[in-house]
Write a structure and sequence with these properties.
Strand content: under 5%
Number of strands: 0
Order of helices and strands: HHHHHHHHHHH
GO cellular component, one term: plasma membrane
InterPro entries: TM_pro_TauE-like (IPR002781), TSUP (IPR052017)
Structural class: mainly alpha
Oligomer: single chain
Subcellular location: Cell membrane
Keywords: Cell membrane, Membrane, Transmembrane, Transmembrane helix, Transport
Membrane topology: Multi-pass membrane protein
Shape: globular
Distance between the termini: 27 Å
Radius of gyration: 17 Å
Length: about 260
């Protein structure tokens, strides 16, 4: 495919929107990945290039939140390590087993998250009693969602946030903020493996990285300046859309086989 200036500008704009959505609710890949595929980028290269720009988005969001006084403290280190180990293991396993079953399991999980937030309008508005200690969450959900991101990916940020609200009793805002750092870790691990295999199209990736950085920067400020109320409806919307997308891909795969 020919990479032109106009095409790079389109990718920049797409990534900017995705970065804003991803920072608030996750699911930005639902916007960027189809754009890459529609432009004629081969599927494996599209996945790899999408990871490259996604890493920049969550890194920008994490740094912005850090400078605003969030994401601090040594307690986060075990969570980061656990998520990273899970992502590395997921990326390793996905190359060695049949993962076609994920095509129908993941939509069910995404719909479950959407219903979880939809049926609980006050969920995450205030801290509640925790079902798990920080250590228990670090040994279960952090590596579990990290494994999922390394093996598959859609909705990772939503799964990190939803599990923290449900099992750690956190507010949706604080859970979403912490999810940025963990999602950066899992994306960075996956990207390192993709890059080592030479799968990233860096010219396109660079344009999308710039767009993601700006979108994530705007999204972080939106979140901290009264935009927290957007998180719940965006999470529900993106989970439903990601589920529909995965179901459509599943039936396309069946028709081809």
């Amino acid at each position: 495919m020919e990479v032109t200036i106009s095409l790079l500008l389109i990718f920049f704009a797409v990534a900017l929107l995705a970065g804003w959505v991803d920072t608030l609710a996750g699911g930005g890949g639902l916007i960027t990945l189809p754009a890459l595929l529609l432009a004629g980028v081969p599927p494996v290269n599209a996945l790899a290039t999408n990871k490259s720009q996604s890493v920049v988005g969550v890194l920008t969001a994490s740094l912005t939140l850090f400078l605003k006084g969030h994401l601090r403290g040594r307690a986060l280190i075990p969570l980061v390590i656990a998520a990273g180990v899970g992502a590395a293991l997921g990326t390793w396993v996905v190359q060695r087993i049949d993962t076609s079953w994920m095509s129908w399991v993941i939509p069910l999980l995404l719909i479950a998250v959407a219903f979880y937030f939809w049926l609980s309008p006050n969920l995450g508005t205030h801290e509640s009693e925790a079902w798990q200690s920080e250590r228990q969450w670090a040994l279960t959900w952090a590596p579990g969602v990290g494994f999922y991101d390394g093996a598959f990916g859609p909705g990772t940020g939503s799964f990190f946030a939803a599990s923290a609200v449900a099992f750690r009793g956190q507010t949706l805002l604080s859970a979403t903020i912490r999810a940025k750092l963990l999602n950066f870790t899992t994306n960075a691990v996956s990207l390192a493996l993709f890059a080592a295999g030479g799968k990233v199209i860096w010219a396109i990736g660079a344009a999308m990285m710039a767009g993601q950085a700006l979108g994530a920067f705007i999204g972080s400020h939106t979140m901290l300046n009264g935009g927290a109320k957007l998180i719940r409806p965006l999470v529900i919307t993106m989970c439903v859309l990601m589920s529909i997308s995965q179901i459509a891909q599943y039936f396309d795969w069946i028709s081809l086989n």
